[in-house]
Amino acid sequence: MPKVPVYNIEGQQVGEIELKDEIFGIEVNEAALHQVVQMQLANKRQGTQSAKTRGEVRGGGRKPWRQKGTGRARQGSIRAPQWIKGGVVFAPKPRDYSYTLPKKLRRLAMKSALTSKVRDNELIVLDNISIEQPKTKEMFRILRNLKADRKVLMVLPEKDEIIQKSSRNIPGVKTALVNTLNVYDILNCDKFIILKDAVPKVEEVYV
Questions:
Q1: Is 0.85 topped by the overall pTM?
Q2: I want to staple 113 with a disulfide (CB 3.0 to 4.6 A). Which of 75, 138, 152, 186 is the partner?
Q3: Contacts of 183 (CB under 8 A, 6+ apart)
Q4: pLDDT tens, position by position, 86-95
């Protein structure tokens, strides 16, 4: 079982914690990570882009000039794609880009993402965090003590509005609950901070 240090909000090591091999110590499957990240990005797409085809652009019902005898190329409509203000060839239309992958593959990708953070020494287990009132400055100080001053994902065991409000104005810092974790956010962060109480919940969900 991989062992990682446990820190307090002052950045001091106060102990160690053993992580389950089947969650934090598997062989990283990059193919699974790639597929799940592609799925998440596709599912985020709004799919609301739209443009008009030549049949939808207003006007152009009359032939601009006669077929022969003018010396110019034949034209049937001023709304043809080669005309200014004409329609778009193969115009994009609203569509749904979302799709799903097998549950086992998504679970494998999650375990691989968590393992990669342990392997790259980017996982920080925090003993406890308590802030009396929402204060961005206090949260910034805690992150600085933990040497997590870039992209940070903080996983909480339960909803805590004080912590969430304290961190939401810090650029690059994102909070998540155990049931809202996703592969893209884990891979996209430079430091993965998880509270000690959230570790057994993650192991229970993804075992």
A1: no
A2: 186
A3: 33, 36, 37, 40, 106, 109, 110, 113
A4: 999 999 999 9
